[in-house]
Design goal:
Chain lengths: ~120, ~120
């Protein structure tokens, strides 16, 4: 099984550019989420989804959009990149089914630099 | 409100000595608790989880954690540190209330293992 696959691994953008970070999972997980990791701040939730067609905001949603048209894919869109969005982004998925005890499975991350 | 406090941002131990990484949490609901490990430039890997069964939980690579409800703690231990344990460790709380999932990460503890 591939698990959670994120692309690209690295990306450099100029301020104002837009791009989409891709995330795909092959475990039939209902729950998918995006985090950003910054030094000394742990992981902060950007957006999450509990199933196809259902998304919601996390702790730091501003400047990011998501959609969930299929169970497998959960892309993260940066509408107009800013230097403050320089970070490492992780996608994670898990079973949901109304339970909180399923562990999150993480992708290997996308390192984004905005100049 | 839900929160996770990792009491040490850095821990340094000698190879072969015990490891203790401390985590305290607060939650209004019955939590599931997890420890993840992140090696440099890698994604997060699940070490172990507590989900209201046994309070002493054994994980991979010789790690274990004890859930103490009275102290709202979930400290991670290992009897003898190995060089390969050098990494960053995250304590995570996950709850489900009213159909709403909430996942909270600690800010992480960097473990240094001295030869």
């Amino acid at each position: 099984n591939a698990g959670v696959t994120q692309t690209p691994k690295f990306q450099v953008l100029k301020t104002g550019q837009s791009m989409t970070l891709q995330c795909a999972q092959d475990m039939n997980h209902e729950y998918m989420s995006w985090y950003r990791q910054d030094p000394g701040m742990g992981l902060r939730l950007i957006h999450y989804s509990v199933g196809a067609g259902i998304t919601d905001q996390g702790e730091v949603p501003n400047g990011y959009n998501v959609s969930r048209s299929t169970t497998e894919d959960f892309p993260l869109r940066l509408l107009s990149a800013a230097p403050s969005q320089t970070s490492v982004y992780f996608c994670a998925s898990s079973y949901s089914g109304g339970r909180a005890d399923s562990p999150l499975h993480f992708g290997n991350g996308t390192r984004l630099t905005v100049t | 409100a839900q929160s996770v406090t990792q009491l040490d941002s850095h821990v340094s131990v000698s190879e072969g000595t015990p490891v203790l990484l401390r985590c305290n949490y607060s939650s209004s609901y019955s939590p599931s608790l997890f420890w993840y490990v992140q090696h440099p430039n890698k994604g997060l890997q699940l070490l172990l989880k507590y989900t209201s069964a046994a309070t002493l939980v054994k994980g991979i690579n010789g790690f274990e954690a004890e859930f103490k409800k009275s102290e709202t703690s979930f400290h991670l231990t290992k009897p003898s540190a190995h060089m390969s344990d050098a990494a960053e460790y995250f304590c995570v709380v996950r709850t489900l209330a009213g159909g709403y999932q909430k996942v909270t990460f600690g800010i992480g503890t960097k473990l240094q293992v001295i030869p």
